[in-house]
Write a structure and sequence with these properties.
By secondary structure, the protein is α/β, with parallel strands linked by helices. It contains 19 helices and 10 strands. The model has no long low-confidence stretch (mean pLDDT about 95).
Length: about 475
Amino acid sequence: MSNKSDIAVVGLGVMGANLALNLADSGNRVTVYNRTTSVTDEYMAGEAGDKDMVAASTLEDMVATLERPRVVLLMVSAGPPVDYVIADLAPLLEEGDVIIDGGNSLYTDTARRTEELAGLGIRFVGAGVSGGEEGARHGPSIMPGGDPAAWPIVEGILQGIAAKADDGAPCCEWIGEGGSGHYVKMVHNGIEYGDMQVIAEAYDLMRRGLKMVPADIGEVFALWNQGRLRSYLIEITAEILRATEDGEPIVDRILDAAGQKGTGKWTVIASMESGQPTTLVAEAVYARIVSSDPEGRARAATIYDEPIGPIEAGVDDIEAALYASKIISYAQGFRLMQAASHENRWDLDLAPIASIWRAGCIIRADFLEDITAAYRRTPGLADLTEAPFFVEALKTALSSWRRVVAAAVGAGIPTPAYASALAYFDGMRSGRLPANLIQAQRDYFGAHTFERVDQPRGTFFHHEWV
């Protein structure tokens, strides 16, 4: 039996350290390397010391431990650090070896690296990994893309450590070429932003609009987690709202300024570049930006001293608004991936993408079973909102959805995600929008031309307005 390692992990931060343990538990011999040697020493002195692992103090030593074709998993910060490691590592590898970037890299960087390394005979994979610390340790959702020749080499390794859905399927499938894996992970994170925002708005409506205490709101979320909203984020929200410190709700002691790492912003930028209306994710990103200035909001609150609430809507209405907005968010996300697939010739299969999000990742939810079923039933589905299951769900929720948005506006409680999702829904179902006036204005001041309803599409006209 060879004493060579099956895979090396570079970077022993939270994700890298836990993925290495997961890899070892899944039957792989693992070599670990961290630029700071003391981090490696401390790691090996802990739980890793009992695993089938080897520590390397240099990249040269690490490469020497690996079975060919060598497989190296990079778990370093996205951006220039990935390029720095690749620059040091690539000269040590040989044709046919594989580098996997498991960080949150921008998909265009992944596409570039795939092409550059292919020129050296090295197979590059950009693998989105979702699930946080727990997922990394016990089974994440993994979205690999890049050089297709790498997939037969890494398929068993990656599927072996991935989460398993209720039907036993691994939450890891080959996504496509170039930067497709990291693109799908980016959209996943954008949807995650949206999920968190629609949940936060439900909490706010109950807290300020219905004057409920956090523990009681937590009980509502726990109840919702037994129904169609059952998901990881709903589950942890219930736990958070019921948690106390010195007898007081911990949530009330947390500053209301939300951070972000950039993947939500990337999703919005990508949607604009593709001309796709990912409006709910955009509102979720901007809501975090608004929250990041608590001092400014405090000043405005004293200037515009207007009472908040109560709202004229119930808990069941809020649940329906949350669910309907969630449908819109996912519909927009999948529509964006579909557009990117056409633009980049990735040939993305949306059913497996929904399927690998069913477990392991942050947005894992029963809801994704319905999305998977919709795309399996109609592979060429143009928009999730056209699937019969979701058509019925939106029709059923619509009156509650409108009631919640109207009540929130009347009470002075911001619901940007619910309102933007509803506006998108109303826009997409409108047979005629006021864009004809916008085109007339553009033609008036800039001779930008317009199409006519009584002429074939693609034929443009200019009117002499004055």
